[in-house]
Amino acid sequence: MNDTAAHHSILVGVDGSASALRAARWAAQEAARRNMPVHLFHACVLPPLGPHTAAVTEAGIVEALIEQGHQWLREARREAWDAAPGVQVQTDLRVGAAAQELINESARARLVVLGSRGLGGFAGMLVGSVAVGVAAHGDCPVIVVRGRLPEDEPPTGGPIVVGVDGSAISDDAVEFAFEEAGLRAVPLIAVHTWLDISVAETWSTPPFDVDLDAIEADERRLLAERMAGWREKYPDVELRQEVVRDRPLRGLLAQAEGAQLIVVGSRGRGAFTGMGLGSTSQALLHHSECPVAVVRPR
Ligand SMILES: Nc1ncnc2c1ncn2[C@@H]1O[C@H](COP(=O)(O)OP(=O)(O)OP(=O)(O)O)[C@@H](O)[C@H]1O
Ligand SMILES: [Mg+2]
């Protein structure tokens, strides 16, 4: 793909799993809404080099893995066309480590779409290492497609939820969420949670004289101020604002019941700069019941 076409395609990680096929379908519908091509991408992970490498190569294992990768890509292309007939699809196979290859390729994409699980992992695992790694270090928004359980279809209806913590990264997430809500013509729920510890669980009465209701009123005003500019930019999107006195993960999960997408920044105010994913974003990938979009500044 040349660079002028860059940032105008939706990159999908394909690994032969049912979860990746669901990602391909989700991405194809997104591509149709955004009028962009889908770029189906398989990283072919070869057996590690070692004393038996020569024997492995002789046995034709490398060729077999590559052929299998191409077969998975053809299968994913059929799913994409089935989900969004007429959508433009490009396929690519590269030999290398999956997370690293997808992160490299994400620099040229508008979005990355992945399944929550792949062929590896173990039965009870909720989200795979490639999904977490690309969400943490991808160069554009990364959507991990999931339903309630790893094998469930993602929900298709309902509002979009965005977590707002007032940081610059959460502003990028808010913009992405408005764009998504506009494309789908569904309401957007902006959720601000403002208590990192649970007062009720920690003390029967707060140990000092704080007026929680006054703080909450302030938080509500700050959220409204923060959203005012976006409201102007996206007047067609129906916006609901929720200020929740709870920890971020619980607050967001509760608000996202029945939603079709949760959007968060890669990290919030709490995480230090070197960290790829803040704890809330990380936990959402494991516990959300709908697709999660992790937005990182480019
Ligand atoms: N080799 C690959 N090439 C392209 N995309 C991949 C590859 N491996 C994984 N993916 C993408 O990442 C998603 C999540 O898979 P992941 O590998 O993270 O989970 P897993 O295989 O269950 O666990 P793990 O690999 O950590 O043992 C897949 O649905 C797919 O979209
Ligand atoms: Mg895997």
Classify the oligomer: single chain
Q: Which shape, going by the Cα principal axes?
A: globular
Number of helical stretches of at least 4 residues: 10
CATH class of the largest domain: Alpha Beta
Total of domains: 2
- Helix/strand-derived category reads alpha/beta
- What is the assigned CATH homologous superfamily of the largest domain? HUPs
The first-to-last residue Cα distance is 20 Å
Name the helicity range: 40-55%
Low-confidence segments, given as residue ranges, are: none
Radius of gyration: 21 Å
Please give a handful of descriptors for the protein shown.
single chain, 298 residues, alpha/beta, Rossmann fold, 10 helices, 42% helix, binds adenosine-5'-triphosphate, binds magnesium ion, Universal_stress_UspA, Universal stress protein, UspA
